[in-house]
Design goal:
alpha/beta; 6-stranded parallel beta sheet; 13 strands
Amino acid sequence: MNPQNKTIAIIGLGYVGLPLAVEFGKHRATLGFDINQARIHELQSGQDHTLECSPEELHSATHLRYSANAADLQAAQIYIVTVPTPIDENKQPDLTPLVKASETIGKVLKTGDVVVYESTVYPGATEEVCVPVLEKFSGLKFNQDFFCGYSPERINPGDKVNRLTTIKKVTSGSTPETAEMVDSMYRQIITAGTHRATSIKVAEAAKVIENVQRDVNIALINELALLFNKMGIDTEAVLKAAGTKWNFLPFRPGLVGGHCIGVDPYYLTHKAQSIGYHPEIMVAGRRLNDSMGAYVVAQLVKAMTKKRIQVDGARVLVLGLTFKENCPDVRNTKVVDIIKELSDYNVHADVFDPWVNTAEAQHEYAITPISQPQTGSYDAIVVAVAHHQFKSMGAEGLHALGKPNHVLYDLKYVLPVHLSDLRL
């Protein structure tokens, strides 16, 4: 069978899997598989709550069908795994979704089939963790009966400019022939082109360091913000001045959450420690970035105290819950660190986010966002996410939410420095 005619099955239809299924579904027989039946019904009705694909885009994928029935996977010859790879409460990699997906595929795997992983992992995970599961459940032999590839996802949730097709794709395969087939498959949909890595491990490592690099850079800027705050210097003004040099990197301080930057470094540090290397810079950067929620609340409490606002029993409005602006994604959002820290001070926090699904916020974090904040009700307001709705309110609209004596903490530089009480 011509590789271009083989049926593709996408395992996991979240922020990564759905856009991939839609693009392949425009060109060839594609099965979008997810264990969440409600998600399947939603997509079959032409809707996507993640907002990554519009109803028009879903409709354009004429060769795509959806299923939550694992038996339907038998019709495919190529399987692409796009399930989450989170961390557990001890900040250790949780490969459970990846293992479960491999078990499901292993039960339907046939001679000649190819399994491609897109989920972010540490170098070696595909061949050390996933392949043995595929062999166990299929009874087939790796690189003899079936083959594997790795092509890391580079989806940026909420980004309507840098889309799946316009971001260069790294590809790899377990044999030279598989590498060529995988690369050719992605070239069918990726207009930006592909980069064929020399091995699966190289592709895995390339993905994880993309976000490690960003994490460490943001940690440096966060540390500088802490320093400049102590010195009474506006961090944003410093960064704008330094940014006039052509090679100065435009990072900004803030909360570092999300499904990539706040998670991926733990995968690499886990692997490093397992082979006897104890990384220092990566760990230090993670530790600093994870402490930013507590720092924000400490600064807020100091500012409230200076204004003689009683902290115990105070009402604070947190604007934004998602991990980034103009996006409904709440995965690993660090805004929850602020909310938890406020509760330790016996502060009541109202959370308002027009982008968030209330049921998801309740399920993930036991947080029930309010439908609308009341004017003049709050002792403090924290602009935690730079949604366009908050920007459009301006200084007058944001301050109007507070009591006559209140503190406005602008974490995202939504306002000019003189129009807020605190900034990072």
